[in-house]
Amino acid sequence: MAQSLQLAHGRYKILFFPSHQSVFDHPVMYHVLQTPEFLDAMGWDDTRPCTILSRSGLTEYVEIRMGSWNTTMFGVKSVEFDRLLEDVDGYVVLPRSGDTNNATQRFANSLEDRPGIIYAAGTTAAFDIQSIHLQHGLFSKIPSDVVIIPMAFRGIHSIWPKCPKRNIRINPGLVEVIVAPPMLGETTLFPKRRSLRPQIEPAALFQAVQIVNLLNPEYQGDE
């Protein structure tokens, strides 16, 4: 279906919507983007860099403290890590407080140049079957000429769970990645209005796609 939509030729902007069940979601997503199966399905000759909408201070969950000194498992402090994400990796980092409109608009604009990734739940699930409501406010910033591809990572929660707080224990395990058929933004997103309420329905639709792929191993979708 991705090839029939000519996603490899820039006909549409591309936005990936992965589930968010584990701190390990990010490394898995990076790996999926490079797999031969995924590249073939997308019609890509090579992997493409993506822009990711991310909250600031994510590495605080894996912060290492010794008295007044602290760092993250990546060897730099959380603030410096956020800066590197934007300057080096092309992330768009959302502030924890204050106006987030500038960041979300920058992310929407960046879809002109590269595919995007949003973990629309906004936070990591605390339990393996927890499905947090998607932040429908984000959908008001998504352009209508976008193709949204929901994804679900089965079995990932047990590998690196969010709880207990600041958990840095990573367990062995197997992750099954399900990529749902592309969904056209022009037929699923409501027209932009001042009220965010109309976007609740599209958010619920995309969440339903994630849930059915995440929690129902027998579900195969449209072959």
Number of distinct beta strands: 9
Mean pLDDT: 79
Please mark out the parts with pLDDT under 50 across 5 or more consecutive residues, or reply none: none
Helicity range: 10-25%
Largest sheet: 7 strands, mixed
The value of Rg in angstroms is 17 Å
* Beta content: 15-25%
What order do the SSEs take from the amino end to the carboxyl end, as H and E?
EHHEEEHEHEEEEHH
Distance between the termini: 10 Å
Number of helices: 6
Total domains: 1
Structural class: alpha/beta
Dominant shape: globular
In short:
With about 220 residues, the chain is an alpha/beta fold. It has helices at about 25-30, 35-40, 80-85, 100-110, 185-190, 200-215; strands spanning about 15-20, 50-55, 65, 70, 90-95, 115-120, 145-155, 175-180, 185.
Structure, described:
The protein is built from six helices and nine strands; from the N terminus they run βααβββαβαββββαα. The chain has one domain (13-187, 198-215). The mean pLDDT is 79. The chain is of the alpha/beta class and 223 residues long. Strands 1, 2, 5, 6, 7, 8 and 9 form a seven-stranded mixed beta sheet that branches. A two-stranded antiparallel sheet has the order 3-4.
